[in-house]
Write a structure and sequence with these properties.
Blueprint: E1 2-6, E2 17-24, E3 30-31, H1 34-42, H2 46-51, E4 63-67, E5 76-84, H3 90-106, E6 111-114, H4 125-139, E7 161-165, H5 171-196, H6 204-218, E8 221-225, H7 227-233, H8 236-242, E9 250-257, E10 266-270, E11 272-276, H9 296-311, E12 316-326, E13 338-340, E14 346-348, H10 356-369, E15 375-379, H11 384-389, E16 394-398, H12 401-414, E17 418-420, E18 438-439, H13 447-456, E19 464-468, E20 474-475, E21 485-486, H14 491-504
Helix pairs in contact: 3-4, 4-5, 5-9, 6-9, 8-10, 9-14, 10-13, 12-14
Length: 505
Amino acid sequence: MEFQVITSGVKDVACDVLVVGAVRGQGGQVELPGTTATVDNLLNGLLHEISTIEEFKGNLGELAPIHTMGRLAARRVLLVGLGEQGKLTSQSFRRASAVAARQAQSTGARTLCLALNWSGSGIDAEEGAQAEVEGALLGTYSFRKYQHSEQQGSNGKGIAKVDLLSYDSQQAQLQEGIRRGVALAEAANFARDLVNEPPNVMTPTELANRAVAMAKRFGLEYQVLDRPQMEELGMGGLLAVSQGSAQPPKFIILRYQGDKSTKQGMALVGKGITFDTGGISLKPPERMDEMKGDMAGAAAVIGAMQAIATLKPPINVTALVPTTENMPGGNAYRPGDIVRIMNGKTIEIVNTDAEGRMILSDALSYAVREGLSPIIDVATLTGGIVVALGNVMTGLFCNNEQLCQEIIEAGKLAGEKYWPMPLDEEYAEQIKSDIADIKQTGGRPASSVTAAKILENFVASTQWAHLDIAGTFYVDSKKPYQEKGATGTATRTLANLALLLAHQQ
């Protein structure tokens, strides 16, 4: 998809679909701001007439398609609701752009012009353009590579070109917004591809291969550790989980050097279980097919590194991805085993389906050994976080208040929501073991909290945050703004966090 800024009068914009926005005023009436009002005049008040009937109220994501009948160079106009006037955010424009682009693509449109209006919203041209571009790319994403070509996209085609309507004074800001929006959305879609691949394709080896291919393309340093190197480092958690699988484990390292004056930098750690049967503690068969997504944390981290390499903030970032399958078998690790993690601490195995904390413990220990700070890990870790927060918010566990607020702010920039969860010491009582340093699970009560408390044992005094994305990494039905499947959640948040931290230096 190609993006460009155009300065033509709205009447002369030649495209398949021209997208304009409407807002809901304080009294509930629909208002047509700026460019939308101009289009309304050119269409002899048709948009105003539509907005006065019950069918269109200006709510976020509402659509009203109109054929221009030759009054404009655009073949059709798509009026999209932006929501309540006083509550507009960049997410409003991102969501509206996604809904409009999906609708346009479904009708076979190849060219699109986005003319949403930011006037009075408090959003500047750069932020607005970035949101629109992200929305268009995220909204039109689909994963169809294993379907017959006739089923791919709309009539086998997708939107090829998107214009952003502007004035001369805004061109520099809009171009920068486009640059950021493309980098962030393409990275998120790359992460979605990784998660949506079937597990017979996306093995630990293939995940490593794709991470390396991305690193080569975007100029990142890379290294992939195999089992002998893991044994040398004492990565007992990753090695234990991998025992039951015929697929060899991998430990992926990606490095971005944006600050040559120091070797210090932040670490992004992603859980990379490419398929999770639960191991000997076997999961029920219902929806087990979705466990191909148990590497969504790894995908988010790898995707974030692509965005960071593209946007080039002056900060150092290292990605660490432990990846393996969790399978039952004659060599599989067992309940009752005791496993020694890289930092020397031991874990009593209680349930082999709690494997994510095992591989993350080694990766966190590696990050501490490398002197990296802060450390952010991302994982589809617990069903408990889904019970607590559903699929609206990601659980955020953090040992530093400033870092917690920075992640929340980075999430707001991405339109992703994070909710701070407790790490009080009383929860550590549930993971005390009689025969090891730590017990692998603390039972069902506060299960997402006790899982985070286990991870906390492997970060020492380093600033650290754990993002439990089990409820937000996937949607199980099509949305007006998104295809069913992986969401790419946390990818853009992590990239935004790197940009924020670099700005503070």
